[in-house]
Automatic annotation (TrEMBL):
Residue ranges constituting the Fe/B12 periplasmic-binding domain according to the UniProt record: 1-190
Organism domain of life: Bacteria
Protein name, entry field: Fe/B12 periplasmic-binding domain-containing protein
Keywords, ordered alphabetically: Signal, Transport
Alphabetized InterPro entries for the sequence: ABC_transptr_periplasmic_BD, Bact_iron-sidero_bind
Organism: Paenibacillus protaetiae
Length: 190
């Protein structure tokens, strides 16, 4: 596999004509999309796609600064009776890296990690994106959490900043998926 570099990306050319673009920044964090993207075609096409993505992210980032300012954001997934928090991977890549929104709580790691309601409450996000799976355990946990007095005291709840999200496009971990998430975040906070 041949490797090329431009800007802060690494491009790995494969024999079949596909390119894998790995955008690396800092201590292993990646941009723009925190993962490797496969783009069929030539080096110039890959660079054009990245440039277009960066421009779109910059436009939305500027708009969001006016709309949400310094509000802290947390994205969670309630699944199989457990609450998971998104870090800087998956949809967190778009929220915290590409759009540079403020993470609620301590600095996020890369992982999608389980948290308790008490940990979520301690972070007290200004805005909360919540995906709740359809399984009975998740529905029961979500009902129990939202019935708690502590839930009603969360800033996101008091200010109407809880947004229920669906898996599509939010859980699509691909280059085009990240582009769709950019548009979804822009629409959500419009």
């Amino acid at each position: 596999m041949r490797r090329l570099a431009f800007r802060d990306q690494q491009i790995r050319a494969k024999p079949n004509g596909h390119y894998t673009i790995c955008a690396l920044v800092g201590k292993g964090l990646a941009r723009p999309s925190a993962h490797c993207r496969r783009i069929s075609g030539v080096h110039a096409q890959a660079e054009q796609w990245l440039d277009k993505y960066d421009r779109r992210a910059a436009v939305i980032r500027e708009r969001l600064q006016k709309r949400v300012g310094e509000s802290s954001i947390m994205a969670i997934h309630v699944m199989h009776g457990q609450i998971y928090r998104f870090g800087r991977r998956n949809l967190g890549t778009v929220l915290y890296n590409d759009l540079q929104l403020r993470f609620a709580g301590h600095s996020p790691g890369n992982d999608y990690e389980p948290i308790t309601f008490e940990q979520l409450a301690a972070c007290n996000p200004d805005k909360l994106l919540a995906a709740v799976s359809d399984d009975p355990q998740s529905a029961a946990l979500w009902a129990a959490v939202t019935a708690k007095a502590e839930w009603k005291e969360l800033t996101a709840v008091r200010r109407g900043g809880v947004y229920r999200i669906k898996p599509d496009p939010w859980f699509d971990y691909s280059a085009l998926g990240n582009e769709r998430i950019l548009n979804a975040v822009d629409k959500l906070f419009s």
